[in-house]
């Protein structure tokens, strides 16, 4: 996959982000993640070396903020940014193109994963039906209605456990105050819709 930022573009965009006020490294990472709609999040190993280089060049300066180190743009940094405004417009256009490209790649991955999920669900459903048929054929004196009720209860427990697990994940996200990206929400919708269809088909087959 092509790089998200062309050579030198990320450091210029960092200056643009700092123009609105001092930020620590995590805030810059979060701002980039939000700008890309959750499709791209640079690592600390990507951001901090560039901040260090900008500091060496006198374009940013550091200041203590409790346990964190904030980075602020210097007058030299503002002058650098002003001299490259046209280039910054190109960087913004490149980011928009990258967002579309990354979103397309994610959609392709989701489609591929959904095909695998449908195949897995179909195989699991068939295995369950085969097991049930074998159990009914070999059981002696067991009432089908009792067996059917037991399997219904087991299915309900599986669905409840699945729901509880996802709620724990979502509450953890809420507790950390991390936003749910549009891509993640779309993935949840797609996966749940496909799972619902596959389960319904297996119930009525």
Note down, in words, how this protein is organized.
- By secondary structure, the chain is mostly helical.
- The chain is built from seven helices and three strands; from the N terminus they run αβααββαααα.
- It has a three-stranded antiparallel beta sheet with strand order 1-3-2.
- The relative contact order is 0.10.
Shape: elongated
Strand content: 5-15%
Number of strands: 3
Considering DSSP H and I runs of 4 or more, what fraction of the residues is helical?
A: over 70%
Q: What does the largest sheet look like?
A: 3 strands, antiparallel
- Class by SSE composition: mainly alpha
Radius of gyration computed on alpha carbons: 26 Å
Strand order across the largest sheet: 1-3-2
Order of helices and strands: HEHHEEHHHH
Average of per-residue pLDDT values: 77
Number of helices: 7
Distance separating the two termini: 42 Å
Task: Pick out the low-confidence regions.
Answer: none
Count of spatially separate domains: 2
């Amino acid at each position: 996959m092509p790089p998200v930022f062309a050579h030198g573009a990320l450091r210029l965009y960092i200056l643009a982000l700092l123009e609105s006020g001092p930020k620590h490294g995590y805030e810059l990472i979060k701002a980039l993640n939000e700008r890309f709609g959750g499709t791209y999040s640079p690592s600390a190993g990507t951001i901090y070396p560039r901040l260090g280089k900008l500091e060496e060049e006198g374009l940013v300066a550091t200041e203590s903020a409790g346990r964190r180190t904030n980075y602020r743009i210097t007058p030299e940094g503002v002058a650098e940014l002003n001299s490259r405004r046209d280039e910054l417009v190109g960087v913004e256009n490149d980011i928009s193109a990258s967002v579309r490209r990354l979103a397309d790649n994610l959609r392709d991955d989701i489609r591929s994963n959904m095909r695998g999920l449908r195949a897995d669900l179909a195989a699991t459903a068939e295995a369950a039906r085969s097991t049930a048929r074998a159990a009914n054929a070999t059981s002696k004196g067991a009432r089908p209605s009792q067996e059917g009720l037991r399997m219904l209860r087991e299915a309900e427990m599986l669905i409840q456990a699945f729901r509880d697990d996802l709620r724990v994940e979502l509450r953890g996200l809420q507790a950390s105050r991390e936003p749910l990206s549009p891509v993640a929400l779309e993935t949840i919708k797609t996966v749940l819709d496909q799972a619902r269809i596959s389960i319904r088909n297996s119930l009525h087959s």
